[in-house]
Each structure stands twice: as C-alpha cells, then as structure tokens.
Amino acid sequence: MARPLLLLAALAIAAPDEPTVLLTDDEIELAREFSPLESPPPDPTNRVADDPAAARLGRAFFFDPRFSRSGTISCATCHDPARGFSDGRRIAKGEAHHARHTQSLWNVAYNRWFFWDGRKDSLWSQALQPLEDHREHGTTRLEVVHAVAADEGYARAYEDVFGPLPPLDDEARFPPAGRPMPEEPRHPHHVAWTGMADEDRDAVTRTFVNLGKAIAAFERTLVTRRAPFDVFVEGLATGDEEKLRAIPPAAQRGFSLFVGEGRCILCHDGPNFTDREFHANRVPTGEGVDPGRALGVLRLLDDPFNLRSPHADDGGELGRTKLSLPRPKWHLPGEFKTPSLRNVATSPPYMHEGQMETLQEVVEFYSTLEGAVPPGPHTEKLLRPLGLDARGKADLVAFLESLTEETIPDALRGPPPTPDLPRDGR
Prior knowledge:
The protein is 35% helix and 1% strand. Helix 1 (25-34) crosses helix 9, helix 4 packs across helix 8 and helix 11 (249-259) packs across helix 15. The chain folds into 2 domains: 11-41 and 225-401, Orthogonal Bundle (Cytochrome Bc1 Complex, Chain D, domain 2), CATH 1.10.760; 52-223, Cytochrome c-like domain (Cytochrome Bc1 Complex, Chain D, domain 2, Orthogonal Bundle), CATH 1.10.760.10. The chain has 15 helices and 2 strands. By secondary structure, it is an all-alpha fold. It has helices spanning 25-34, 52-62, 75-78, 123-132, 141-150, 152-162, 188-194, 198-219, 228-238, 241-244, 249-259, 293-301, 317-322, 359-368, 390-401, and strands spanning 278-279, 336-337. It has a two-stranded antiparallel ribbon. The longest helix has 22 residues, at 198-219.
C-alpha cells in the first residue's frame, strides 16, 4: 500500500484545527475518480429535456394530485422532496399498494435504465407508466389530456412548449376517459379507446408523451453534486485545509473500505456511485421470487414507448443502439438495478422491497450475509461476507452519510406559482 499523502507524523499531537488526510496516494487517486460529478448527459430523444419552460410545466404537473383517479395522488406523493424524493415506506402506495419500494429521484437524469427492473429506457417514458398504473395514479391518458386542456394555465403552458392541443372539446371524437388495455379488451377504457379514429388516438398519445417529456425535464433538475465528500476531494486537489475538514476521519476510513476490502465499487462505481446495471444482491425477500430484470428486459423490448418507438425525438437512433444490448437470456430472477448512493442517507428504507430500515442494517447485511438468499448455480460471484468489525461498520456508514448534499433548492420543494410562466422566466 502506498504511503499516506499529507498524513501527519503524529496524529495524537496534531493541532485540532490542522487537517488530517488518512488516505493513501492510491486512494486519493481513486477519490478523484468519484468526484466531481459532471452535468447530466443530454437526452436527444427528448427535444425539451433542458427547456426551462418545459421543466416548469413538468414541475407543476409533478406536484398536482388532480391527475389521479382519486384526485389525491401526485408524483410527489411517492417522491416527496422532504424524504429524499422517496416516500419513507417499505412498499410504495399510490391508489393501491405496489410490489416494490419507491426509488429516490435524485440524479435520475444519469440513469441508463429506469425502475428497479429496468423496464423503461428513458426518463420521459418512465414518467408515463405511473399515470395509467391502477396502483399508482390510476387514470387514463384521455383523462390526463382532457384535464390539461380544461385548465387555462396548463393549456397555455403546454401550447407554449409543444404547440396546439388536440380539439378535445369534441367528445364524440375524444371520450372523457380511455386507454389501450389489450389485456382487458372488454374494459370500458379499452372500448372507448379503440372506438376512436386512428389519427385522434395518435394525437392524444402524442400529447400524453409530451407531458411525460415535461415531467422528465423537471426531473433532470433533481441533481446532487456537491456533498461533503465532493468538497473533501476538492481539498485533496487544492490543499485547501478548510475543505479537507469537510468529512471526518471516520468517513475517510469508510472510503478506504468502500474502495478496498469492502469491494463496494464493484457495483457502486463512478461519480454517481452506480454502475447503472443489474445485480443479484441476495437480500431476503417476501413470498415468491420477484423476477426483476429477467422480466423487465422483456417488458422493455415490448414497450410501445421505448426508444425505438416513433415517440423518440431523435427518430429512434439512440434506441437502435441502446436496445440492441439487452438480452433476456443474460438475466436471472432476482437481479435489480444498482441505485446511486448520492443522498442515500435521505431516503430510507433500502433495497427493492424496503427490507432494511437503516444504513446500519445494510452494512450489517453485507458484512455477514446473514439470511441471504442461497446462491443458485448461475448466481454471480461478487458477494462474499465482508466480516467488518464494529468500527469498520461505523466508518462505512459515516462515508455513506458524507455523500449527502444538505440543501434542497426551494424550486424543488413544491409547484411553481402557476404553470404558465413566460418562457424567458420573468
């Protein structure tokens, strides 16, 4: 192991205000690979991805409970800013209970795949599914589009960004509710939808997709990039003593474990602390086996809103590359997406079913693998008990807590005063 850089000769007699760097030269080089986190990558499939007017419309929509069956559920119901853009529940609950835990939306703009099973390949496509899921918003695309058109502020804001709405006042052409439900062909929503002319269905779906793209534009602003750990890494680069005091010695020791014997970087790699892919971490689950990515990849390839669809603004160019990669036979049941660890301390509980209430429980599980699902013949071999002592566990938790950026801008805490603000922001 390389000699510690800037480590004081005698820690016991170090002045209280003198920074102490406990990392080795090699670990300092690794730390610089984890920070800074660059700006989110562009999304060529969403032409309004970085349009402030679209983000304002998406922000209004995100916090508005009117776009749900009961009029009580909004995106923010499950993605509460005060709870790390999660909900604090083990299992999500919208109009009904879901099967999985609500993931945080922090840094969602950096994701490659979406949902725990990766069944969506874009942020705007991900935003659409909860609206028509009976367990979440429980509404239909016709109801959503009618509600936008009926609200003067929303209608102006929508048309400012996307152009004219369909002529929705003609109920003979545009029923008040309806969506495609081929799995239930006799359902009134499916009957109403299939009774429409092709061009009218296309107009409604296009409007519905545009709303998803506006929500995605807002969610792309949910970025955390300057936690105490990032300030500390700046100090490593500049020698700024104040910045070197941004995280305590315990967090530094935790980082050493994270990149060393803890082997955490095998899945939580890079400046967003995720490899953006899927792994079987063998966490104990409820009854039955959740297929995870094994089913998610099939749903992705069959998704009418995936990036090969006509709804991608780049003409499907990215989708033709991206969707050539997933292979159903590569995934076994029980594989789930690796979440980012940035702001992880703000959104307990953890894992895909919220099985663990605290970061301490998470670290304890990986230390012992007690109760882990037995490995199958083809289970990946990444996991092994870490065997950490009490200080090691506490240090690792301290490092994870150092990834939390404390300040949430007011613009992310609630809806804008009105959705129809001028495009120049005045």
